[in-house]
Design a protein that fits this description.
Layout: H1 6-29, H2 37-53, H3 64-85, H4 92-118, H5 132-166
Helix pairs in contact: 1-2, 1-4, 2-3, 3-4, 4-5
């Protein structure tokens, strides 16, 4: 793996900030939203991290990590649009959750990949993206994402039902 550049360090440090703020937000509020400070922080830092990823080319050309950055920007934009403009009425909150939560998956995939390909220094855990350990992590993160989406949908359904009862 090539040495990390200054942009790579900036990207990595902000990526950790994004992940911490996302996990905190999900634990506290069950959903990422611009209505709370930690949700705003997550969305803002995610945009910066995805944008900075588009400037990192230490692996050659435009690769899978760049595509994940593009998908992240599309998903976060979709989440913002659904939250602010509610284009799909009552269903917008589900698309908001899908948009914002999918960005968390898009953070985790390259994060674990880079971690396992770089560390420990001189003798990394894996030597290719096809390594079964790395593939296992990717599958586990996808499963966690799917379980998390089901949990969010159930919570949103319950919240909507509670709001309808009290109205």
């Amino acid at each position: 793996m090539p040495e990390m550049t200054l942009l790579g360090w900036f990207h990595t440090i902000l990526g950790v900030v994004a992940l911490v703020s996302a996990f905190y937000t999900l634990l506290k509020y069950k959903i990422i939203s611009l209505e709370n400070t930690s949700g705003k922080l997550y969305v803002l830092v995610t945009i910066i991290v995805a944008g900075s990823a588009l400037g990192i080319y230490n692996q050659g050309g435009f690769g899978i990590a760049h595509w994940l950055a593009v998908l992240t920007l599309v998903a976060v934009s979709g989440g913002i649009i659904m939250e602010k403009f509610k284009w799909f009425g009552g269903f917008s909150m589900y698309f908001q959750a899908l948009g914002y939560s999918s960005t968390l998956l898009f953070h985790m995939l390259p994060a674990i990949t880079d971690f396992l390909l770089r560390l420990p220094l001189g003798n990394p855990f894996v030597d290719s993206i096809e390594n079964p350990l790395l593939v296992g992590f990717h599958q586990a993160f996808l499963l966690i994402f799917l379980v998390g989406m089901v949990a969010q949908i159930r919570w949103l359904n319950k919240t909507a039902a509670d709001s309808a009862e009290s109205a």
